[in-house]
Amino acid sequence: MKDGLVEVAVVGKFGFVGVSLVLGAAQTVQRSIVRVPGSALRIEAGAFREILHQSPEIREHMLGYVQLLIALNAQIALCNARHDIPERVARWMLLAQDRIGGDRVPVTHGVMAAALGVRRPSVSKALSDFEAKGIIEGRRGAIRIRDIDALRGEACECERILKDRFRLFRDMPHHRRVM
């Protein structure tokens, strides 16, 4: 859209982008944006399609992830419609922390606001309140979570629901391709 983007999924070390290929599309209709520094693996679309064709087990695993993403998208839409911005900010930070690992989330207020589809001052206010409570420590371009249990207390129940649903995929058997 000309007035910006809204995040519909958080993909981290256990996920992937390009689910359209798993569903048989020639190209994706979504735009993927990297919000935090890190590393990733990349595979050419044709090679990925070939792996899916040759391995029903891997295809089923990937389809399980697609099913999970649909459920996550629905939960995030519900959360965005029903919960206040501070609860959503806490949820977002906890999910980002879970995907990244560690207590430091390298993100700006503006990036978080764009991801949540809200105004930056609303995110800054929520983060300022969390910092005043000793829950987080803000630094330029990063937020350190000081008290993860207190941050969970600030988040809506969607954080737990999303994390539990994602755990189903994370705990599925993983397949490794031998080269």
UniProtKB/TrEMBL annotation:
<dbReference type="InterPro" id="IPR014710">
    <property type="entry name" value="RmlC-like_jellyroll"/>
</dbReference>
<dbReference type="InterPro" id="IPR036390">
    <property type="entry name" value="WH_DNA-bd_sf"/>
</dbReference>
<dbReference type="Pfam" id="PF13545">
    <property type="entry name" value="HTH_Crp_2"/>
</dbReference>
<dbReference type="InterPro" id="IPR012318">
    <property type="entry name" value="HTH_CRP"/>
</dbReference>
<feature type="domain" description="HTH crp-type">
    <location>
        <begin position="83"/>
        <end position="149"/>
    </location>
</feature>
<protein>
    <submittedName>
        <fullName>Crp/Fnr family transcriptional regulator</fullName>
    </submittedName>
</protein>
<dbReference type="InterPro" id="IPR050397">
    <property type="entry name" value="Env_Response_Regulators"/>
</dbReference>
